[in-house]
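Hi R.,

Here's the chain you asked about this morning:
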Amino acid sequence: MSIDKIQQEIIEEFSVYEDWMDKYQYLIELGNELEVLDQSQKNEQNLIKGCQSRVWLTADLKDGKILFRGESDAVIVKGLVALLLRVVSERTPQELIENELFFIDALGLKQHLSPTRSNGLVAMIKQIKLYAVAYNRISG
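And here is the predicted structure, written out as tokens:
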């Protein structure tokens, strides 16, 4: 499934919730389903700078695709990580470079998150793009 189709799917899933408290609850549920990172991966190198809570993001290139894994110590942020990984993991570096993550604005996430969480979300996306550029150079 394409990045755009997955983003559309996420927008549709969130559209069933009218109240933001329900959307937050759904985010928390998504975060609870996220695979736990090994303790060794929760290190300074994988820590996202700019997040108030602690967020770790790993990326490995396998068969030309980037496999992202991540986790956070905050429940809502963990849900944001789960959403991002659903869209960006197992994509080629080129796909990640060429595609915009429009679902964030379409859901109104930046407007409904605290400024520090919103900044953290931007920092996570920036790190994903940096991994894509780096792996594109390696695989290209």
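One quick note: The chain has a mean pLDDT of 92.

Cheers,
M.
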